[in-house]
Amino acid sequence: MALGGGTAAAEPAAPGPLLWSRPGRLGAPRVSGLHLQFGSDASREVVVSWHTTASVARPRVLLGTAHGGFGRTEQARTTTYRDAKSGTEVQVHHARIGGLQPDTDYVYAALHDGAAPELGTVRTAPRGRGAFTFTSFGDQGTPTLGRQTAGGWVNDNLGSPAAGDTTAGVERIAPLFHLVNGDLCYANLSGDRVRTWSDWFENNSRSARHRPWMPAAGNHENELGNGSIGYGAYQAYFSLPEAGADEQLRGLWYAFTAGSVRVISLNNDDVAYQDGGNSYVHGYSGGAQQRWLEAQLAAANADPQIDWIVVCMHQVVISTADKFNGADLGIRETWVPLFDKYGVDLVVCGHEHHYERSQPIRGQQPTDTRTPIPVATDTEVIDTSKGTVHMVIGGGGTSAPSNQLLYSPARCRVITGVGPVDSATGKRPPKYVIEDAPWSAFRDADHSYGFAAFEVDPGVRGGNTSIAVTYYAVTGPYGELLPVDRFRLTRPRGRRGHRV
Fold first, then answer.
1. The pTM of the whole model exceeds 0.90
2. Domains of the chain
């Protein structure tokens, strides 16, 4: 059975028992960390990925439907990196599958010679305007104990049991895709970086094999020695939409379209002042990311088929947490003016380990910290054609939550620069300015962990389109969900305003 006009040769449907054959019967490693990514057009292209620490023969994916069986085979391309800390080489196998039908369910099996197939499912996005749901959180870590000490086993990468609970919570919603707002597994803090990445994928594969987990690289994805600027592991594990960047910058920023939503994922270590990773990489792209971002925003804003522009990144423009990371002037100086110019609707971030959101903001006060200006006060129905809503969703599972550190009343600590390297820490200490937070709309001081769900309603021609947003606190080991914050984003359908 041919599916979606693919060009790969068909492989005869395998007999049923193959799917339950004993793993490693030829000594091959198992299919580990199975996960999905969308291509630039989420209605037509997905990538199936898994990893091994040994070479394998003929990595491939069998694709089909629940009723028609497997009728198409796509060969996988293998990407490798060698972890500079352990010397371990990791091989990541990516099967890019194009020519799919929009808004359609598929089944697949990932395998290589000698290994039992691992099964998954995926649904493509609608093409054009259609209803769907996506979710988002950042700052997860792993629920796994990765290092043994004299006192027993400990988690050495800022993880906690909640890192598993949040994944279970996402699966209760079963979104079309999930945005990971940076600081995926904190491998740069771990004694065994390869194991930490493996633990993260093992925890999340129960979700990510059924729906793409689309990441943004955070400061803790920066691992000393892994690639020229530290993101070699991240770049190997994910095969993300092509953005025309140089090879050393591949995958650090990208965009994709799902329905009438254009998602733009950024790596703001490039512009943020804070020294937060294993190495300080401020300005690493030489302005390339900034130029790409403006071109993407201009194109999306001018496209009559795009209603929503959503930016996913790690460090934040707004925060009311004390004694934590703070907002970053570098982002306010470089990217916020572009968000204003081209009418970005929503920005989702992590970095601060709690939940809060802003009023719609547009423009900046003429202060040294460029304080964002709120343009409306309604916290329940928000017209994003007037301003951008920023959401901090950093309760993905880390053992260091910041929800108990919120200023009362709300204030903001802004990083305005860094000092010379501290010989004791090897870091550039941040310089802070405290300012008022007139943009603050909602903060959750009561719950450490959770995620947001976004239900896209395309609306009707001539009317408004909307996104119903719910922030769920995750309150137990089986992903029990407690709605904490509900609001609705709205804007005219098909009339972005073409702000320039």
1. yes
2. 16-123 (2.60.40.380), 132-492 (3.60.21.10)
